[in-house]
Sequence to fold (1512 residues):
Amino acid sequence: MAKLFTHIRLIAGALALAFLVAIATSVSAQQPSMVNPTADAVKEQQLLKELNRIQGRGTIPDVRSYVLEQPAGREWRHFHEVTLRWIGGIAVLGMLGLVVLFYLARGMVKIENGRSGRKIVRFNGFERFVHWMTAACFIILALSGLNITFGKPLLLPLMGPEAFTTWSELAKYAHNFLSFPFTIGVVLIFLMWVGGNIPNNVDAEWVKRGGGIIGNDHPPAYRFNAGQKMIYWIVVIGGGASAVTGYLLLFPFYGTGIEGMQIAQVVHAVVSVLFIAAMLGHIYIGTIGMEGAFEAMGEGTVDINWAKQHHRLWLEEEVSRSPKGARAQPAE
Amino acid sequence: MLIKRTERQTRRSSLAATIGSQTGGGLDRRSFLRKSGLVAGGLATIGALPLTSVRKAEAAGPNVAGATIRKNICTHCSVGCTVLAEVSNGVWIGQEPGWDSPINRGSHCAKGAATRELVHGDRRLRYPMKLVNGEWTRISWDTAINEIGDKLMEIRAKSGADSVYWLGSAKFTNEGSYLNRKLAAFWGTNNSDHQARICHSTTVAGVANTWGYGAMTNSYNDIRNAKTMIIMGGNPAEAHPVSLQHVLEGKELQRANMIVIDPRLTRTAAHATEFVRIRSGTDIPVIWGILWHVFKNGWEDKQFIEQRVYGMDDIRKEVEKYTPDEVERISGVPGAQLERVAKMFATEKPATIIWCMGATQHTVGTANVRAFCVALLATGNVGKSGTGANIFRGHTNVQGATDLGLDIVTLPLYYGLVEGAWRHWSRVWEVDYQWFVDRFDKSTAADGKVTTTMNTPGIPSTRWFDATLYDKKDVGQKDNIKAMFVMGHGGNTVTRMPQAQKGIEALDLLVVADPHPTTWAALAPERKNGTYLLPIATSYETDGSRTASNRALQWGEQIVKPIFESKDDNEVMYLLAKKLGFADLMFKNIKVTNNLPSPEDILREINRGGWSTGYCGQSPERLKSHMAHQADFDMLTQKATTGPNKGDYYGLPWPCWGTPAFRHPGTPLLYNTNLSIKEGGGTFRARFGLEREEKLPDGSTRKVSLLGNGYYSKDSEIKDGYPEFTLGVLKKLGWDKDLTEAELAVINKVNPTTPDAVSWSIDLSGGIQRVAIEHGCIPYGNGKARANAFGLPDAIPTHREPIYTPKPELVAKYPTLPNAKQFRMPNVGFDVQKAAVDKGIAKQFPLILSSGRLVEYEGGGEETRSNKWLAELQQDMFIEINPADAAERGINDGAWVWVTGAENNSKARMKALVTERVGKGVTWCPFHFAGWFQGVDQRGNYPKGADPIVLGESVNGLTTYGFDPVTGMQEPKATLCQVRAA
Amino acid sequence: MARMKFLCDADRCIECNACVTACKNENEVPWGINRRRVVTINDGKPGERSVSMACMHCTDAPCAAVCPVNVFYTTADGVVLHSKDLCIGCGYCFYACPFGAPQYPKVGNFGSRGKMDKCTFCAGGPEADGSKEEFEKYGANRLAEGKLPLCAEMCSTKSLLAGDGEVIAQIYKERVSKRGYGSGAWGWQTAYRESIAT
Fold:
């Protein structure tokens, strides 16, 4: 019985609501008998509270100019002037510090058994070309990018405004134009090496053993160990992200509005400084951090003993693929 | 490097030091304002400071050493803003705010602030051109004038003088307007018209027929005194932006009611305290709806009606029919809202009605305007500060051009076309009357009587192409229109452009004398020969006076010499008169130097003949002195408080009685009985006879006086109504003794046989005016205003549905007027309306199409669309459409649409602006665009380099038939269309 | 020393665009660059208000803060100016500006957007006051002549006020108290971190 009542109430309520809606629509279809535009005027503070942004209509074709006010610019400015400097400073200087500490603590990782004199091809010419093209672009992009954030406090006082502007303008051109070969490089890197960079069980072991950074351990690895895979994915993802966000900034208002560009700039900047920090590590390990590593990208070949030490599984693979060790060349 | 920063500081502190030295240190508010010329609106308005203390600092000079300052008047509307030009080496290098102008106080709108670009002339016509086999070819001025003159004479010989149409301009100076009308008179035709036809002709007719003169009764500045203002059918925020300075400050200071009644929630309405949305074309029901409440509640001003108004009872009878329900049925406005509006309007006084083309551009335009006047009369809101009919006109000098008779029904200054008028001007021009009679086309009636078209109103500019295309026998003159001589008039401002295109093709001769080629040159590509383009200087390149909407005359100086090969209007008219062989007669009393007639002499001639409207006291010397001493005039009262013009009202607003030597101060408010006539007061004009015989219901008749009833202006020696003054009237009063001998001699010369009949308006001595005014009486008599304007087609305004109405069911009850022949042309509006209802046009074209103005552009827009600073701000023609209508049609904001019109299979491609500004079922277009026609881009039709920057479809490509019976006004505000996505 | 500010009284603004063309006229600003613009909020609805906006010459201006090459400087009058000679056209000021003031001559701007341009409060730039170079790069220097920006001076309804912040705030305050309504000193909170108590 009570249930029935509830039902009736519900139906009656729905009917009443429908009736009200019907009345409301029929009333609104007619002209309201009181319109006072002065009293109805929008208020700035109220609009800002609602959206933190005020947008309207204008007559010139430039629709972005219809945004009247967007106080978010202040927040972006805080990011750029304060947050980013901290993130960038900590990341870049922190990484440099780490590397220095590590070098002091560990020194160069030697080829334990000495050079065998026998070499094996690790990267072919095309791979090296792509790597170096990307790397060169990266360095210039990094320096010219860092200039935008750190040039003003660091270089401007040293260089003076005119020279600093000339340099910054060149740097900006370089940054804009070199973004293209860099992006192509990142794409090629992704395609070239994606096969060797899919994480697998070996990586788990490698990671578990800390990559052998501490002590004299050398966990086995295929062509790329987990550390290198990490670098690879940092390059692919970080490079991709900075390229996409960079292009959004390079072609303003094509893909996004002002907030989009602010976000793009934040992503671009954060990804880039982290990217730079990671690359500092990569550069260290590829140069003074490890004996025999630079040759891989420098000449394209590595010593068999180096390969044994760092990429045993890869070496075994290579050897088994050509039992005669065709690819292992005797030293001359 | 930025060492400049410190330099800047030094210099800045030296500025501060100078200020400091004046005020004893620091930068106090007052001296800061003085020094910086801070916009006067704020403090001056709120009364914290006298206006003088916020005037421009003397220290502020022009940018460039040696630049001189010249003053002219902005050409883009009728407010009359002073343009202050800095000129260096003959180049207009900068614009400064004209702080001293009591009208605009330094302000401008987008057009005024960009007006310097007009004279830079990127897109101006550079030299005379002629269309030869479809190609624009450069010719010399001599060739142009010779060929045009020969062709005109040929047409005259073959088809008669009336076959040449002289279309003049509201951008002429007063002197140019007058010359243009004079030229038509000397040529021998009354086919002389200008933009007033299509903007306020109905105002002029309706208002003049109510109380005497057809002009703004008060002024822009005076609106500050209103406690209630109704803005109906006008969007001054876009059309007259500087007027809003007065409107909004008035609204703020008085906490006034600002009621906007309009089909659109306009930019003006956005600042209203009450917005009433009506259906286009229902002004009369809405006004009667308001008056219904006024009469019902007894809010009318009974004493005012009793003393000063004729025929209000007839109005009451009509108003009774417009009950709140009926008004809502017709217009859509709820009765409760109108009651509130009625109460404010009738009880919170002073109240004013402001209107513009939303009211006038209708088949019922004259009746609309009459209804407004009646509402003012019923509530006693005329003839006092803060009240009145504040009619905002459209161009710099549309008031002046109207006054000076660029019109098909009158000679200069409303003298009409009767023999007396011709004789008056013959005397002023010192040309024999018979000479003019001989100039006009003659026809012999069946009874052998020879008549001329001299006294017959000409063809309105809204019908010129009909007069070109119709069968000759349907045009009430000797032959069709064969030649259009167009000076400063757009080709896209008249409705029914598809017909105009055919009309242009049919002409024998088309002359476009304009700074720009205009739509006339581009609209009809099928026309391959016989078009001449004459480059004319803008108003900034010529000297002369201009009359603003408030009837004040301002003298504008030539800022720079005409650029390129341009010539000013006056010179071209002189050259043409010379070619046509009557220059000596026409310029008899006007000095001509190097083919350039002296504008001062022309104005003096106007003064000598302009008695009827009080254009007699504004000598060039007085006007120039006003411009030179603008700062002496008070902003609110417009009166000079000091200086050589002390006591004068700014610009000597007409009527400025008597000779210049009489030093009448001008009339800032018409019909203001609180001032003596000598100080600018007035009464309603006794223009409609002394009494009227009325038929009573029982069939008997009675005579009712039309003169003022027991009221009179201050200091009047006659304490009641009185007729207009003639020598005879003066004699009856015994005042003729006050006339000087010289004055009497002139009066006797005017009419040697019956000098007693010489009236105040034809007395060339000004003596009759002088004597009447000395006795405190107004020369034109003290009469009643007419609520019942007997003689007009709708003596009592009554609602009539637009020809193309979205509510055909109302046509039976409210049909348009029957067909009739008007102005030599048939007006078949009734048939068109009936056919539209029968064919169900409203079903095919369900949306109301209305048009109006954008702030960036003016009129046909050729000039302003050629101005890069303005063109950038409005780059596309658009149609406003309500979101509901847009959604039904799948139209997005900013998308291209096709708009189709109800006649001529017309269509136009433009962008959609989806907005709630227009109600459901309503669309609205700006009317400034041209250069695209029926979907075709016509840019190639303009002479190279003279095409406007922005082109677009003209709304008049879509507008339709319909004419006001009193003036031939077109109907661009209420027609029908359909819109679909493109 | 005066602290120059702009204030747009939206209850007076009628979107007449006089400020926009006055700016173009006075500074010979080319097509496509809009140092000042008018934006209408709630267009076509009863609450519609229009606001004229340009560089507000912010206190502690974000554009100046984020500029990587430090081209901005604030004059003693509080006017934020910049050096086009030093600008590298990076667009950062545009990201930071709450009012969309910075303008660039190139729209499709791959490589460079060109030198940033913005409202100078009619106060020119670093070049000598009233010099030809200053005019060509930045437009007029009215402040040096003892005049205020032409946009405000020519405003049709005296809606746009320019001048000493205290003075114009006072004008606005008195207007609001006189008329009894006010939609706010648009942008003041964002630009100057202050609001006008009315």
